[in-house]
Structures are given as structure tokens and as C-alpha cells.
Write a structure and sequence with these properties.
Elements lengths: L8 E6 L5 H13 L3 E6 L3 H4 L2 H8 L17 H8 L2 E7 L1 H8 L6 H8 L4 E5 L3 H5 L1 H12 L3 E2 L3 E4 L5 E5 L3 H12 L8 E6 L4 E4 L2 E3 L6 H12 L3 E6 L11 E4 L3 H12 L4 E4 L6 E3 L9 H7 L2 E3 L3 H7 L5 E8 L3 H11 L4 E6 L11 E2 L1 E5 L4 E3 L3 E2 H22 L2
Helix pairs in contact: 1-3, 1-9, 4-6, 5-8, 10-15
This protein binds ligand PMT.
The site of ligand PMT has 29 residues, from helix 10, helix 13 and strand 16.
Length: about 400
């Protein structure tokens, strides 16, 4: 299972802002991912949402008062702090940010955050003028200097009618930040370039040559690399997927556009993973108007597109270059031919045309072939888990290269 939230103990602090109701949705995202959630609410938060909702959804009583509640008091702030893997405060008001940045501990949430050693994510949400107030900004910067992660609010129309920064990001964005907090940063310092999705090679204004790649494999590779601390660029063909959080996304349509975008980024990349299903062929000419179906049969001639990864392989120095091979037969033979022809360090060969592997599925089954002749068959797994394994293998290749150059 690849979700970093699974089986983690997350403490959710809820403060008194209009966005407090969104903390309920966030709690549900965490629970669906298999995390165990404890909730602490400030007095003001309870004026917006009742603790019963959080209690019902988390399966635990909610901590609302310093004194007088029964469960494991009076050392609850210590016990919860010791078992917490991460803390997230949603919405974080100017008041909680001010108290936290000055070390004040006068309610359950501020007492708890002073005791905790797990990473903390603070998600400010408030009126734009409050948010832009110099005192609030100074307090946020102070939190950041102490190692607390602050997810800056989005800009838009606020509940009070004003416009500007102050909106709470959506709950999936917040959950992704928490996942990132939970991951080891073993790709820190790496610049990772990933390609994803299909390309479309137009025949005329309404038709194109393409393939069924959904982009799922490439997008999860980009997300995992970013969670593990890399700076990530994603060059994506047309997909319906949302941009992964914190990743530079360049959207393209054709193989030629993908080539140009990859070449602009590749020189700076330390790791390149080519998961895109790039069309090998494109129509030799593009018709300005819709081609009549009778003419199509006679006139559709094709020419080869540029082999992007082959060009990368020819110009490679100390980069790690990973390709995928989409095969319907002779997996090993075809994958090994591509590995050597394209000068790859590693190729992940997947059988396509199966419901649970290759195009469109959430899972994939690949065999890995290395430049030094090693190979290993991996079991069927979730594409997120496969992305984790692939980056572990890339780090292994880097370590071997570093040891060899000592
Ligand atoms: O997107 P999903 O629905 O999640 O599906 C994932 C996937 C099946 C698309 C992915 O796992 C995969 O196999 N991607 C590579 C598909 C492919 O184009 O394979 P290939 O064997 O034709 O190409 C070999 C390698 O050369 C690939 O790394 C490819 O990106 C690259 N290539 C191919 C053609 C070309 N003109 N330029 C290239 O760089």
C-alpha cells in the first residue's frame, strides 16, 4: 500500500474560522486513507462546528477543554504528542498563529503543539486584511523559521465578500501536504523530470492518432518524487488529471511539443523518468479542414516522430535515465533492446492490454531490466507503490555509481 497516511496518527487542530466546516471533509479524507485521527478544537471552533461531528467521524472523543474532561487527563497533551506522526491545523486563525509564534499555551491546542515533536502543518484562512497585516505575516514567518510548515492560503472571493489571499486550499491539497510531511526526504537535492500521458498527432482539425495512456503512472511518479523532497517537473500530454501539488507542469499535445518541453528541462535534471506513451508515428501532413472519409483512406501517410528518450540517451552524462516499455509480447526481448538502443539505466517493462496493468489502470505489473544485466520481476501493485519502488531503485543505481567513482 502506498499512501503515506495509512496507519499514521494524525492530530487535527480546528480553530474558529468560517472554513472550520472544511476540517470535517479533511478528516474524512484522512480516515478514507487509513489514518487514525485525534481532534482538538478551540473554543471558537465550537461556535462554527460541533465536536460531535468530529467525534462520530474520527471514532474518538474530541479534546475541547483544558480541565474537566475525563479521558486520560491531565497528561493528554503529552500522550497525544508522543503518539502523533503529524499535526495539521485547519483553519489556522490569526489568533492561533499569534499564540503559537509566541509560545503561549493557554488552551488544549496551544498546549499540545508546544509538546509535540512530530511535523506540524499550519493552514491559515482568514479575511484578506487580517492575513496581510504585518503582525500576522511576521508571526507566520516566525513559525516557518522554527520549522513549522505553513500552507499559504489561496487567493479568491472570501466568505466576507472581500477578495484576495485568505481562502483555505481544498482538502486534497492539504492532505497531500500532510503526506509530504510524513515522507523521508531521500530525493532532496534531486531535480526530477517525468513525462506522462499520451501524445495526440493531428490528422485534421477533428481527428488525431493517439493511445489510451491516462497519465496515472507519470503523475504518481511526479507526486511521489515531490513528496520525497525532489524538485519536480512534469511534461504531460493531454489528460484529465489535476496538476500534482508543488510540481511544475508543462502541458503539451504532440510528440514534437513534448520533445521541445523535455529538451528545455532535461539539461538541469538529475533523474529523468519517461512514462509518457509518445506516439511513434504522425500524419505526414496536417489538413487545414476536415478530411472527407473517402479521401482519408487514400491519403493518410505517416512519418516517424522524434524518439525523445533516444536523444536524451545520446546526450546523457551523469543523469539517471529511466524508460518504460509498453509491450504486448516478448517483454524481455523488446525491453532489453530498448534499454540498450536508448542508453537507459533502467527500463520498466509492462504488459499492456490487461485490465489491471498498463494503460488506464490504478495498478501495474512491471519487470525491471538494468544496464548492468540485472533484472527483477515485480508483483502486481498500485501505481503509487510502483513509483516508490522505482525511486528506491534509482537511488540504488546512484549509490552504486558513487561507490564506483570513489
Ligand atoms: O498513463 P497510464 O494510463 O498510467 O499508463 C501507463 C503506461 C502504460 C503508459 C506506462 O506505464 C508506459 O508503459 N509508458 C511507456 C509507453 C511507451 O511509449 O512505451 P514504448 O515501448 O513505445 O517506448 C519506450 C520508451 O521510449 C518510453 O519510455 C517512451 O516514453 C519513450 N519514447 C517512445 C517513443 C518516442 N517517440 N519517444 C520516446 O521518448
Amino acid at each position: 500500500m502506498s499512501d503515506p497516511l495509512k496507519d499514521k496518527n494524525i492530530v487535527l487542530g480546528v480553530c474558529g474560522g468560517i472554513a472550520a466546516y472544511k476540517a470535517v471533509d479533511l478528516l474524512r479524507v484522512f480516515v478514507r486513507a487509513g489514518a487514525h485521527i485525534r481532534v482538538i478544537m478551540t473554543g471558537a471552533a465550537q461556535a462554527f462546528v460541533g465536536p460531535t461531528t468530529f467525534q462520530a467521524l474520527s471514532g474518538h472523543s474530541v479534546w475541547t477543554q483544558m480541565f474537566g474532561e475525563q479521558e486520560d487527563a491531565p497528561f493528554r497533551h503529552i500522550a497525544w504528542a508522543e503518539e502523533a506522526d503529524a499535526v495539521v491545523i485547519v483553519p489556522a486563525t490569526a489568533n492561533i498563529i499569534g499564540k503559537m509564534s509566541h509560545g503561549i499555551a493557554d488552551d488544549p491546542l496551544t498546549t499540545f503543539v508546544l509538546s509535540v515533536r512530530a511535523p506540524i502543518l499550519v493552514c491559515p484562512s482568514m479575511n484578506v486584511h487580517m492575513y496581510e497585516n504585518r503582525l500576522v505575516q511576521d508571526n507566520i514567518e516566525k513559525l516557518e523559521r522554527t520549522g513549522i510548515k505553513v500552507l499559504r492560503p489561496e487567493t479568491g472571493l472570501l466568505a466576507c465578500g472581500d477578495e484576495g489571499p485568505g481562502r483555505l486550499p481544498d482538502v486534497e491539497t492539504i492532505a497531500e501536504e500532510v503526506r509530504s510531511l510524513l515522507c523521508p526526504k531521500d530525493l532532496a537535492g534531486e531535480r526530477v523530470l517525468v513525462t506522462a500521458g499520451p501524445t495526440q498527432e493531428p490528422i485534421d482539425p477533428v481527428r488525431f492518432i493517439s493511445n489510451p495512456s491516462s497519465g496515472k503512472m507519470g503523475y504518481v511518479l511526479a507526486r511521489v518524487a515531490r513528496r520525497r523532497g525532489a524538485e519536480v517537473s512534469l511534461v504531460s500530454g493531454p489528460t484529465v488529471l489535476a496538476d500534482p501539488q508543488g510540481v511544475i507542469v508543462i502541458r503539451v499535445r504532440t510528440a514534437e511539443e513534448m520533445y521541445n518541453a523535455v529538451m528545455e528541462t532535461a539539461a538541469k535534471a538529475t533523474i529523468i523518468v519517461m512514462a509518457a506513451a509518445v506516439s511513434d508515428w504522425r500524419p505526414a501532413s496536417l489538413s487545414e479542414h476536415k478530411v472527407k472519409k473517402e479521401e482519408m483512406v487514400q491519403d493518410l501517410s505517416l512519418e516517424q516522430t522524434v524518439d525523445i528518450v533516444r536523444v536524451l540517451g545520446e546526450n546523457k552524462n551523469r543523469q539517471i535515465l529511466v524508460g518504460f516499455a509498453a509491450e504486448t509480447r516478448d517483454l524481455e526481448k523488446n525491453a532489453c533492446a530498448k534499454l540498450s538502443a536508448k542508453n537507459l539505466d533502467l527500463i520498466a517493462a509492462n504488459l499492456v492490454g490487461h485490465a489491471d496493468s498498463g494503460f488506464g489502470s490504478d495498478t501495474n505489473q512491471v519487470s525491471l531490466f538494468y544496464q548492468d544485466g540485472r533484472n527483477e520481476a515485480l508483483p502486481l501493485m498500485d501505481k503509487g507503490a510502483l513509483a516508490e519502488v522505482l525511486f528506491n531503485k534509482v537511488l540504488g543505481i546512484k549509490r552504486r555509481a558513487d561507490d564506483g567513482s570513489d
